[in-house]
């Protein structure tokens, strides 16, 4: 789908890139010629991932930094250390935190646990990179991983929905503010992509797992991680530089399915539709 040297000479930071979707996106960038930096809270996990990816791509470099992005000074130090070995050309804000809970049961600390990662941490990382790019007059691309709840909200994940909506607005605001510096910001709003971490926190009752999404998704399935990785590579590429300030859903149209007045009719059979047509046409004749 892509030129294998698409990202030759590029260096991207992927937050939370040691596991899950962050790892999958990072591996795609490396496969297309990029060097990557991954950061997260668990050094061992990052190291293991970096080793495995470099073993498959011995000519590429995957660097690791142990950091908690909720701590602004730690983010600043990490970005300093990254820049000491060379500048970045892009950032993927993938690190997140989430769990389902009734909102009335959330303590202020529970709200902060999510908001500090998603809203604050994403801002700290984006601004730490952005100010260096601006000072160096370096073109760059920022991609944030959101969810379709940024448009609709969602019950039981209110801190995440609020925080990710904030990152969507950051994407639009900075796309305008930083566009003149050659820095563009976009975001992807994925629907359900099963990863170990997300599923453990968001589907604890294991309700039919993937089957649960068959009836609720126009494509009748959950997302394939490779589809997200392809979208991320597309948006990070210089070939689509004119895309700036966009939040693009990748969910099989699940997010807009409930909005159509007639969406519930998806379950009707051809026979149902034949009867409906006859009934409507007989009404027309009278
Ligand atoms: C209610 C909870 C809770 C739960 C924690 N808390 N879990 N409250 N229900 N299930 C409360 C605690 O009681 C405490 O408040 C406060 O939150 C902080 O808890 P800690 O355990 O001290 O927090 P911490 O160790 O910082 O852990 C952060 C975390 C954790 C977010 C809670 O889950 C984490 O580190 N997650 C990172 C990875 C992750 O979540 N990945 C999934 C992302 S998926 P009190 O008041 O009691 O002290 C995603 C999008 C998916 O984002 C989209 C799918 C469509």
UniProtKB/TrEMBL annotation:
One of the GO BP terms on file: fatty acid beta-oxidation
Superkingdom to which the source organism belongs: Bacteria
Record-linked InterPro entries: NAD(P)-bd_dom_sf, SDR_fam
Keywords: Oxidoreductase
SUPFAM superfamilies per the UniProt record, alphabetical: NAD(P)-binding Rossmann-fold domains
Molecular function GO terms recorded: 2,4-dienoyl-CoA reductase (NADPH) activity
Protein name: Oxidoreductase
Organism: Reyranella soli
């Amino acid at each position: 789908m892509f030129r294998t040297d698409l990202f030759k000479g590029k260096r991207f930071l992927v937050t939370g890139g040691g596991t899950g979707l962050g790892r999958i996106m990072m591996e795609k960038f490396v496969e297309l010629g990029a060097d990557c930096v991954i950061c997260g809270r668990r050094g061992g996990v990052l190291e293991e991932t970096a080793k495995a990816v470099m073993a498959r791509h011995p000519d590429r470099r995957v660097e690791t930094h142990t950091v908690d992005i909720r701590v602004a000074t730690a983010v600043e130090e990490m970005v300093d250390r990254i820049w000491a070995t060379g500048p970045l050309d892009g950032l993927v804000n993938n690190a997140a935190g989430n769990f389902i809970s009734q909102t009335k049961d959330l303590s202020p600390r529970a709200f902060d646990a999510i908001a500090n990662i998603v809203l604050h941490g994403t801002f700290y990382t984006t601004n730490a990179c952005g100010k260096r790019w601006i000072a160096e007059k370096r073109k760059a691309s920022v991609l944030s991983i959101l969810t379709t709840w940024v448009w609709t909200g969602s019950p039981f994940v209110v801190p995440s929905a609020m925080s990710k909506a904030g990152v969507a607005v950051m994407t639009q605001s900075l796309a305008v503010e930083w566009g003149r510096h050659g820095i563009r910001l976009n975001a992807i709003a994925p629907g359900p992509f099963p990863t170990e971490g997300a599923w453990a926190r968001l589907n604890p009752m294991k309700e039919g797992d993937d089957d649960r999404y068959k009836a609720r998704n126009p494509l009748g399935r959950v997302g394939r991680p490779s589809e997200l990785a392809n979208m991320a590579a597309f948006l990070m590429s210089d070939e689509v530089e004119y895309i700036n300030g966009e939040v693009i859903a990748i969910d099989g149209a699940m997010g807009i399915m409930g909005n159509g007045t007639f969406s519930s009719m998806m379950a009707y059979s051809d026979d149902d539709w034949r009867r409906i047509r006859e009934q409507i046409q007989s009404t027309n004749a009278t």
